[in-house]
Amino acid sequence: MEDAFLIKEAQNGNLSAYSELVKRFSPVVERFAFQLGASLKDIQDISQEVFIRVYRFLHQFTHSKFTTWLYKITLNVTRDFIKKENRYLFKAEKLAKEPFLTDELPEDMLFKEEEERLLHECIKKLDEKYRIPIILHYFHDKKYEEIQDILLLNLSTVKTRLLRGKNLLKKALIEEEKKEGKKHG
Fold it and tell me: Which intervals hold domain RNA polymerase sigma-70 region (predicted)?
């Protein structure tokens, strides 16, 4: 079957046509991801994510060449994956370098844990419409546009919710710190 026919069929909901596209283009995706620097152990995960995105956005495909579109998706997924992997490795290396017994006083360690616990509790109390963008942006390093795509919102709505969420979070943290201060003071 010709690619254009398969794409049209897959766009119309034909899962066997979509499956054929995956089978036909998986080697291309895997090879490109590897050439971009992905490790062999990650290739399957990257390929899976690429084809999930293809499936999600196939109805929007209007480009003249499917492979061009597929390469763009593969490039983005691989970059994201490598960035995430590098952040993970950096954190792992940093943790490995930190001895269990540090020069920090136990009180300092407790304060850090207490601040993190307090932040976590305040975030949990936020309304979902503010909580999710805050988590995606500050803890998962998602850009405004990615949050827009994930939550299916306008870009201005994402920016507004992040700003309001940040202000609400700041207010909540100040209130909680006052309460904590009264408990210990």
Answer: 21-87
